């Protein structure tokens, strides 16, 4: 684990895919796999895989390949999936509701503790038994509850304001769905999902073919 | 535009951000901007910006900077935002409904033509006046209507099957929300949004701090 601090963002971005494929192999009772076989499944080159996995320990043995469960548990470790994360959603519009309704994140260890919105029509409603609360109560809620990740699903114009409240009250992880680049201190980590950006990349690729 | 074919994926992935920032500058009536000023706003280095923008034409003049509206319209051009795209959503669950409800994509030129699902409880319902249709009707619908982009929001296990129907019926763009890697012919472009992967990257970053 000593090597962990040096893992580049490029490698980190590939880790969830390793996690997904190795999880499937475990489900199919595969005990070990060579970098070549893994390469055929996952689509990275065998050399890339060896390089990536070498970043965080000495796995693969020449002529034996990787021990799947050992590698999987090490990747879970690096991804931080060995503990639970408490989350809140701010913004109970389309995307906020979709995320609140999706139970898959909980299976990975991300527990939704509360949902906040400004809209009086939404406040008091429940999504999977979690009540939507008035956003005015957010600072107090964060003082009373330790929250690891704030999921920002408000319109762009309010995203930085919401982010500032989260950061001020000790939230260190921000999952941002608003198409803006948030300003945070160094000890706060932001990961963004920009749906429009993703759609534009697709239209660019389509346009490129013509 | 001759240079366009050579634009790397890394540059393409940055283009939506240029599009977003230049759009804001236009709204604020900014006529021109230097790579240094743009760098301060957008967070890429000035040298990176000059390199990126040089990929698709001769903009910026020494000592003058970039003509904002000219650059914006060229980026729109490269992103393929000079025409309309017809889309269908397959899977009217949480994320499918969220996307169907979001009107922002239409403003960019992506028009939702229909929504399909297998669930009899959903079939016949309407989202923003668009009826959810039985997925059995998808092949016929695609034969009768030219669709540019299929938005896959079905569970992983059904995603490749849906993708195959889309591809077989001439859809060239796939926007994939299922956490699987789809197999498509070379002339079909896939852009994926893997929400769980994004959340795992965040937990990895949080874990890395400790």
Automatic annotation (TrEMBL), chains A, B:
<keyword id="KW-0238">DNA-binding</keyword>
<dbReference type="InterPro" id="IPR036390">
    <property type="entry name" value="WH_DNA-bd_sf"/>
</dbReference>
<feature type="binding site">
    <location>
        <begin position="91"/>
        <end position="96"/>
    </location>
    <ligand>
        <name>NAD(+)</name>
    </ligand>
</feature>
<feature type="DNA-binding region" description="H-T-H motif">
    <location>
        <begin position="17"/>
        <end position="56"/>
    </location>
</feature>
<keyword id="KW-0520">NAD</keyword>
<protein>
    <recommendedName>
        <fullName>Redox-sensing transcriptional repressor Rex</fullName>
    </recommendedName>
</protein>
<keyword id="KW-0678">Repressor</keyword>
<comment type="subunit">
    <text>Homodimer.</text>
</comment>
<keyword id="KW-0805">Transcription regulation</keyword>
<keyword id="KW-0804">Transcription</keyword>
<comment type="similarity">
    <text>Belongs to the transcriptional regulatory Rex family.</text>
</comment>
<dbReference type="Pfam" id="PF02629">
    <property type="entry name" value="CoA_binding"/>
</dbReference>
<keyword id="KW-0963">Cytoplasm</keyword>
<dbReference type="InterPro" id="IPR003781">
    <property type="entry name" value="CoA-bd"/>
</dbReference>
<dbReference type="InterPro" id="IPR022876">
    <property type="entry name" value="Tscrpt_rep_Rex"/>
</dbReference>
<dbReference type="InterPro" id="IPR009718">
    <property type="entry name" value="Rex_DNA-bd_C_dom"/>
</dbReference>
<dbReference type="Pfam" id="PF06971">
    <property type="entry name" value="Put_DNA-bind_N"/>
</dbReference>
<dbReference type="InterPro" id="IPR036291">
    <property type="entry name" value="NAD(P)-bd_dom_sf"/>
</dbReference>
<dbReference type="InterPro" id="IPR036388">
    <property type="entry name" value="WH-like_DNA-bd_sf"/>
</dbReference>
<dbReference type="InterPro" id="IPR058236">
    <property type="entry name" value="Rex_actinobacterial-type"/>
</dbReference>
<comment type="function">
    <text>Modulates transcription in response to changes in cellular NADH/NAD(+) redox state.</text>
</comment>
<feature type="domain" description="CoA-binding">
    <location>
        <begin position="81"/>
        <end position="181"/>
    </location>
</feature>
């Amino acid at each position: 684990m000593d090597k962990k601090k040096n893992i580049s963002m490029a490698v980190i971005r590939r880790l969830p895919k390793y996690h997904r494929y190795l999880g499937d192999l475990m489900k199919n009772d595969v005990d070990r796999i060579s970098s070549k076989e893994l390469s055929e499944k996952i689509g990275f080159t065998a050399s890339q895989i060896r390089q990536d996995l070498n970043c965080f320990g000495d796995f693969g043995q020449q002529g034996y390949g990787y021990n799947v469960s050992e590698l999987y548990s090490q990747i879970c470790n690096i991804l931080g999936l060995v503990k639970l994360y408490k989350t809140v959603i701010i913004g109970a519009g389309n995307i906020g509701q979709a995320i609140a309704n999706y139970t898959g994140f909980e299976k990975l260890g991300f527990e939704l503790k509360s949902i906040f919105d400004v809209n009086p029509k939404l406040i008091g409603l429940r999504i999977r038994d979690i009540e939507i609360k008035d956003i005015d109560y957010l600072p107090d809620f964060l003082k009373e509850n330790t929250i690891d990740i704030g999921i920002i699903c408000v319109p762009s114009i309010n995203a930085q304001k919401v982010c500032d409240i989260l950061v001020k009250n000790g939230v260190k992880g921000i999952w941002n769905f608003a198409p803006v680049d948030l300003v945070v201190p160094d000890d706060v980590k932001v990961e963004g999902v920009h749906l429009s950006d993703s759609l534009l990349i697709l239209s660019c690729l389509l346009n490129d073919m013509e």
